[in-house]
């Protein structure tokens, strides 16, 4: 049980770190880069920060509800990235990602503290 909780904690931290770092790279790309560079940096963000491997790792050890929330968070990150790279207004997509990331973080804290998710 203790080892399972530690594996879950590690997977949670790695996943949150990956999606947060990817979001930061996308955010910076949307502000700092020329058009071609912006698109490349934003498109590479999820790969650069191993978002998909981190999600898979979390999915393997997390309760089903938390795994589904993490899947949805990745889809919101993709939507944010796509809005940035298409030069569309992206504030709404960024806010949706941030709000859901906060909900995922809270759900992780509940699960790790022994609560039910």
Structure explained in plain terms:
This protein is an all-alpha fold and 117 residues long. Helices cover 85% and strands 0% of the residues. The protein contains five helices and no strands. The protein has helices at 2-32, 35-48, 51-61, 64-85, 91-112. Helix 2 packs antiparallel against helix 4. It is elongated and about 50 Å long. The two termini are 17 Å apart. The mean pLDDT is 92.
Give the helix/strand layout.
Blueprint: H1 2-32, H2 35-48, H3 51-61, H4 64-85, H5 91-112
**SSE ordering:** HHHHH
Describe the biggest sheet?
none
Class computed from helices, strands and strand pairing: mainly alpha
- The gross shape turns out to be elongated
Q: Cα-atom Rg, whole angstroms?
A: 15 Å
Q: Percentage of helical residues?
A: over 70%
Note the total helix count.
Answer: 5
What characteristics describe this protein?
117 residues, mainly alpha
Question: Summary?
Answer:
The chain has helices at about 1-30, 35-50, 50-60, 65-85, 90-110. The chain has about 120 residues and is mainly α. The chain is elongated, with a radius of gyration of 15 Å.
């Amino acid at each position: 049980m203790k080892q399972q909780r530690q594996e879950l904690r590690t997977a949670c931290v790695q996943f949150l770190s990956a999606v947060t770092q990817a979001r930061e790279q996308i955010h910076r790309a949307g502000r700092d880069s020329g058009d071609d560079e912006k698109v490349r940096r934003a498109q590479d963000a999820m790969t650069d920060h191993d978002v998909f491997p981190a999600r898979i790792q979390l999915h393997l050890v997390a309760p089903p509800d938390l795994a589904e929330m993490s899947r949805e968070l990745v889809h919101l990150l993709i939507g944010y990235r796509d809005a940035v790279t298409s030069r569309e207004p992206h504030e709404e997509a960024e806010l949706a990602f941030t709000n859901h990331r906060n909900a995922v973080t809270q759900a992780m804290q509940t699960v790790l503290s022994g609560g039910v998710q």
